[in-house]
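Protocol step 4 of 6: record predicted structures for both targets in the notebook before any analysis. Target 1:
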Amino acid sequence: MYCVSGRCDYKVKRMAQMKLISIGGGGFTHSNHPDLDTFCLRHTVPNPRIGFVGVASGDNQTKINRFYRHFEHCGATLDHLPLTACDILVAQWLESVDLVYFGGGNTARMIEHFETNGWSVPLIQAARRGVTMAGVSAGGVFWFEWCLSNAKGNGLQPLRGLGLLRGGICPHYSSEPLRQSSLRAAVRENTMPTSYAIDDGAAMVFGTETVIDLCSAAPEAGCYQISSGQETTHQTRAVSLGDRHLGLLD
């Protein structure tokens, strides 16, 4: 396992340091690769207030229970934001947490819920002011302009996200081989922009301008950037700590 982490002063983090943690697959909701959860805790304050959002799985009770069991001794408080919360409650809840973990599931359903119920604006505002946002699979990709998803049941297709971060992203890159060929084709054919791909057992931390941390909690698990080359090619390279990412959308 490798993890490269840099702690920052709490006040500075809350004022300026955005941290979005995208996990390709694994962690407590999948009952494997627990080092990924430890990695998330390194990117928040000591004894944090931790919240869980289970919208992508329809508030699956098993995942909610796993959240409380896993972080029982890791935080000052633990809280779950229910599906039924209105936008005002969401904004208030986000003021009371240091780390938010978004579980996986159906990406399209989650994004639609955020948009139609007024969650998108307070979520983006909280991310910008420095609340650490972590998530696995669907819960780790919705921040981007685009993600590669089969959430609509018609195969792996580009799906528009909330658009805080420019570009595209794809989880489960190592465990679902079809994702590799589909993402490469989508980038090559310009149906997806330059995109990140994250293996199961790996995670990336996106700061305001750069990739500020990486974690590999499984053998050979990695993070990659897929970009277009010539008309019939694509380019794949491993992501490195400190790389400038594609930027934030206004």
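Target 2:
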Amino acid sequence: MADIRPFDTIDALSVAAAEELLSIAAEAVRERGVCHVALSGGSTPKQLFQILARLGRNAAPWEQIHLWWGDERTVAPDHADSNFKMTKDALLDPLGLINFQRIEGELDPTEAASKYTAALESLRPAKDQWPVFDYVMLGMGPDGHTASLFPNTPALDATSEVVVANPVDSPLTKGPTTRITMTASTLNWARQIRFLIAGADKAEPLWQVLRGARDPKTYPSQLIRPFLGHLVWYVDKAAAAKLDEAR
């Protein structure tokens, strides 16, 4: 059974998720001396970042926490659509954080994916093993996508790549574009994975992902099944509305 943690509001969800992230980071630093975190874009993570910023530098061992991104749009880092810019404005700048490695969305997408793959070499426990994150934060779109693993896109079949340039044509991307994204294989090696899902528009896809037939081409969030780690779904009341309905 999926580990689902329901909350009445997105505010309560964000506070709980922020508190748990701090706990996981502190434990990772105690055990391994460093904590590697892959962040997500979107409105729910932004609220969590703002909570962390309000708590201040002393709330976490930020000097030992290294931040990464699970995906990025093919835009410059100061572009309004950039996942990096959102995090910079909400978290990095308020806390003066410098331990991060962004995806260079302004580059050719294939080059950006290759460079990020190379940067992630430092997270491989051994040369022939996958990079391992201590914590991966994910969202889910109303079409069931996560990171930039969109329905029926080439990245869903990427089983040996760490990061790929993924061609996407979706109403959510407002037409054809390319996204740079970690693959499901990379994400699934994390020690801890947390989905943060809020809003009524997520209710149907969430039911399909957790209760529906196995169909990851249509609902890519189904690809997230940690090999050894722990997956938790943080959901607000609106997103969870269909989970208890009989079908």
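Step 5 preliminary note on target 2. The domain at 3-236 is CATH 3.40.50.1360 (Rossmann fold). The chain has a mean pLDDT of 96.
Proceed to step 6 after PI sign-off.
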